[in-house]
């Protein structure tokens, strides 16, 4: 089975928008993790990360064990994995045998978050990528995000996706000769 599920947690909406983009572009289902206590303030989230706490969450999505690969998408707070994603990983560790990870951040901490997920699960992800919030918001990360998704596809599927994208993309005319 070569099915892929995208699971995201987002506090501000930036990670959610990136998850929606990669999931819709590839036709993958998207599942969300939500804080059980809506309205948690930002400081509580930071402290959960710093102290590596496992806040209570609600998960809205299919069983990750029904998919070959699960793409985990989460923000980084205080250079650590966001607490709600930590809670999800710990609760579903048995069904996350093959995962990829996308992290979003203000400035850094991606390797810390990936390392923490790997320790909880007992194995490393098949692929990782990190984006700054700014690059996601201004669109400069879009091509790299979609290419990351393409790289997760089996070779035969990736070739078909690339061919169909090339066929369905209209040609963009360049500047006329001699135009400045």
If you had to describe this structure to a student in words, what would you say it looks like?
The protein is α/β, with parallel strands linked by helices. It has helices at 14-26, 42-50, 83-91, 110-121, 133-138, 142-152, 155-168, and strands at residues 4-9, 30-35, 57-60, 69-77, 80-81, 99-105, 127-132. Strands 1, 2, 3, 4, 5, 6 and 7 form a 7-stranded mixed sheet that branches. β1 (4-9), α1 (14-26) and β2 (30-35) form a beta-alpha-beta unit. α1 crosses α6. The N and C termini lie far apart (52 Å). Mean pLDDT is 82; it is low at 158-180.
Write a short abstract of this structure.
By secondary structure, the protein is α/β, with parallel strands linked by helices. It contains seven helices and seven strands, in the order E-H-E-H-E-E-E-H-E-H-E-H-H-H.
Global geometry: globular
Helicity, in percent? 40-55%
Total number of helical segments?
7
Largest sheet: 7 strands, mixed
Residue-averaged pLDDT, rounded?
82
Ends apart, CA distance between termini: 52 Å
Helical/strand content category: alpha/beta
The ordered string of helix (H) and strand (E) elements is EHEHEEEHEHEHHH
Strand content of the residues, in percent?
A: 15-25%
Question: What is the fold's blueprint, element by element?
Answer:
Blueprint (H helix, E strand, L loop, with lengths): L3 E6 L4 H13 L3 E6 L6 H9 L6 E4 L8 E9 L2 E2 L1 H9 L7 E7 L4 H12 L5 E6 H6 L3 H11 L2 H14 L12
Parallel strand pairs: 1-2, 1-4, 4-6, 6-7
Antiparallel strand pairs: 2-3, 4-5
Helix pairs in contact: 1-6
